[in-house]
Fold this sequence. Notes:
By secondary structure, the chain is of the alpha+beta class.
Amino acid sequence: xxxxxxKQRTRRxxxxxxxxxxxxxxxxxxxSDAGEDDxxxxxxxxxxxxxxxxxxxxxxxxxxxxxxxxNVAGRSPVGSLAVDLDEWLNLKDxxxxxxxxxxxxxxxxxxxxIGAEDPTEAxxxxxxxxxxxNNKYGCPWLSPMFSQNISSDSYLLDTExxxxxxxxxxxxxxxxxxxxxxxxxxxxxxxxxxxxxxVGVLISVWIRRELLxxxxxxxxxxxxxxxxxxxxxxxxxxxSVSMSIEGTSFCFVAAHxxxxxxxxxxxxRNHQVSEIFKRTSFPRSPNDDDNPHPxxxxxxxxxxxxxxxxxxxxxxxNLARHLIKKQDWRxxxxxxxxxxxxxxxxxxxxxxxxxxxxxxxxxxxxxxxxRYSGGGPNRSGEKPRTPxxxxxxxxxxxxVKQLSYFxxxxxxxxxxxxxxxxxxxxxxxxSNPKAVAMQSILPANIMSPKNTDLAKADEEAASTLLSLMVxxxxxxxxxxxxx
Length: 483
């Protein structure tokens, strides 16, 4: 027994005495694809204390956010589209969050623009997205899990999903839904946090389920701004999601702006951008927590604006096609309207966009075609369109780094889908990190002086180890007294 006690004391000493690598205040903790339960949680707590050495109340973590945009030209999702969706979402390099914006999920006809909102197409798209994201993890077509934080004016609610899915089951509705929900909770890797539709514009935000345990995600809100026909119809406009992850606020804006390549059409787009900035708001509600959240787009720490922004090229059609044939993307971008709006005085002044190293995404002649519209003779009846990068992803704020920016080659519509992968920083606040870490890593017999069952040798070892830790961690006197 004496030798065994000696070994235990030796292991304890090595464990307490070992000091993690000193981290600089900008150190980012990588979030792995493994579950958060893996590994030694106690040592994680010690490392968090050290990573916050320069500022004991704040640590910085990293999130990988995938942002995608796709104008689907009024077409409904079909089963064969799953292959295209898989390629677009780039699941070989899975992200922590997926934020997807769609345009024209319904045809922009008078009936759909003026009539009541129909959530059917939005539900179908979210079901297909959930299936694609969670296909590797079981129960794929059940995968969309709805957060209780989804705003009440979102068109995707638990009751709607229950109604949609119960038609597939032969068992009684309530019992079947309860059973499948239990399987769903443990089987899905991504959860739908928010979704909002306005006529043909849809935003869908998904997050890894592990992050819901790791972080405090709060104040999830949605907003729509219609600025199409007469300035107030929903054929053009935006849908936005606001949310806070720990101490960092995020805003995602999916937009569809005015079309047209005539002189002056860019002015209508700029006006709509200004209207979206002005009219997008996320008011407080009784369900909010005590932490204040941004009320406007520009009040957020990190903002992503994406969609069919419809900005064109200040260039004649034949010259544009000549540069495309040469793959001279830099030369082509010199005539890009959106790039000029990012300069001083533009509506997107100060906003950033990654280098475009892919062909223009619009307009292709038809579905299942890889030829730009009006690109050659003997094609009468086809309205000529100068190719352009209509589908774009911009960002604004600190702590954002773009890792990739590319287009996919799906021929589902006359637009090509575009996506970007970002690395973002999230500030995690701790009220008293040293005290929390001490409580989680000290053995119970050290923290509880009333325990008198320790042998004398172990008491001496514990006292020595505690003094070493107090010296190394420079604990405040109040905490020392409590120990």
